[in-house]
Prior knowledge:
This protein is mainly beta. The protein contains one helix and six strands.
Amino acid sequence: MPAERYQPSPRAFEPRPAAFEYGPDDQLRKVCTAGRISVQGQPRRIGKALRGKTVALRPTTRDGLLEVIFRTTRITTIDLREPVSP
Protein backbone atom coordinates (compact mmCIF):
# COMPACT_ATOMS: atom_id res chain seq x y z
CA MET A 1 0.00 0.00 0.00
CA PRO A 2 1.47 3.42 -0.94
CA ALA A 3 0.91 5.00 2.47
CA GLU A 4 3.04 2.31 4.06
CA ARG A 5 5.90 3.01 1.66
CA TYR A 6 5.95 6.81 2.13
CA GLN A 7 9.06 8.32 3.66
CA PRO A 8 9.78 12.02 4.05
CA SER A 9 12.66 13.29 1.94
CA PRO A 10 15.96 13.71 3.77
CA ARG A 11 16.52 16.93 1.79
CA ALA A 12 14.98 20.21 2.92
CA PHE A 13 12.62 21.93 0.49
CA GLU A 14 14.12 25.08 -1.06
CA PRO A 15 11.28 27.38 -2.22
CA ARG A 16 13.84 29.66 -3.89
CA PRO A 17 16.87 27.66 -5.03
CA ALA A 18 20.18 29.44 -5.29
CA ALA A 19 21.05 31.02 -8.63
CA PHE A 20 22.81 28.63 -10.97
CA GLU A 21 26.25 29.58 -12.28
CA TYR A 22 26.79 28.75 -15.95
CA GLY A 23 30.26 28.55 -17.50
CA PRO A 24 32.15 31.67 -18.61
CA ASP A 25 31.90 30.67 -22.29
CA ASP A 26 28.15 29.98 -22.20
CA GLN A 27 25.84 32.37 -24.04
CA LEU A 28 22.87 33.04 -21.76
CA ARG A 29 19.31 33.65 -22.93
CA LYS A 30 16.12 34.24 -20.96
CA VAL A 31 13.13 32.22 -22.18
CA CYS A 32 10.19 34.55 -22.94
CA THR A 33 6.57 33.90 -21.94
CA ALA A 34 5.94 32.27 -25.33
CA GLY A 35 8.70 29.71 -24.65
CA ARG A 36 11.18 31.17 -27.14
CA ILE A 37 14.70 32.58 -27.11
CA SER A 38 16.46 34.77 -29.64
CA VAL A 39 19.49 33.35 -31.45
CA GLN A 40 21.22 35.53 -34.04
CA GLY A 41 18.12 37.73 -34.14
CA GLN A 42 15.80 34.80 -34.87
CA PRO A 43 13.22 33.38 -32.43
CA ARG A 44 13.81 29.74 -31.53
CA ARG A 45 11.22 27.62 -29.72
CA ILE A 46 12.47 26.09 -26.46
CA GLY A 47 9.28 25.27 -24.55
CA LYS A 48 6.85 27.02 -22.28
CA ALA A 49 7.94 24.94 -19.30
CA LEU A 50 11.07 27.12 -19.13
CA ARG A 51 9.29 30.51 -19.31
CA GLY A 52 11.23 33.11 -17.35
CA LYS A 53 14.23 30.82 -16.85
CA THR A 54 17.76 31.40 -18.08
CA VAL A 55 19.26 28.82 -20.43
CA ALA A 56 22.77 28.51 -21.83
CA LEU A 57 23.80 28.06 -25.46
CA ARG A 58 26.90 25.97 -26.02
CA PRO A 59 28.56 25.19 -29.34
CA THR A 60 28.97 21.54 -30.24
CA THR A 61 31.75 19.84 -32.18
CA ARG A 62 29.56 20.10 -35.31
CA ASP A 63 29.64 23.47 -37.04
CA GLY A 64 26.36 25.41 -36.75
CA LEU A 65 24.90 23.35 -33.90
CA LEU A 66 24.22 24.74 -30.43
CA GLU A 67 23.11 22.83 -27.38
CA VAL A 68 20.50 24.48 -25.18
CA ILE A 69 21.24 23.72 -21.52
CA PHE A 70 19.10 24.38 -18.44
CA ARG A 71 21.30 24.12 -15.37
CA THR A 72 22.94 20.71 -16.01
CA THR A 73 20.39 19.26 -18.46
CA ARG A 74 20.56 19.42 -22.26
CA ILE A 75 17.11 20.53 -23.42
CA THR A 76 17.55 20.54 -27.19
CA THR A 77 19.93 21.29 -30.04
CA ILE A 78 19.56 24.25 -32.38
CA ASP A 79 20.80 23.93 -35.96
CA LEU A 80 21.71 27.42 -37.15
CA ARG A 81 21.80 26.15 -40.75
CA GLU A 82 18.07 25.30 -40.75
CA PRO A 83 15.47 27.99 -41.45
CA VAL A 84 13.37 29.13 -38.52
CA SER A 85 9.81 27.78 -38.58
CA PRO A 86 7.04 30.23 -37.65
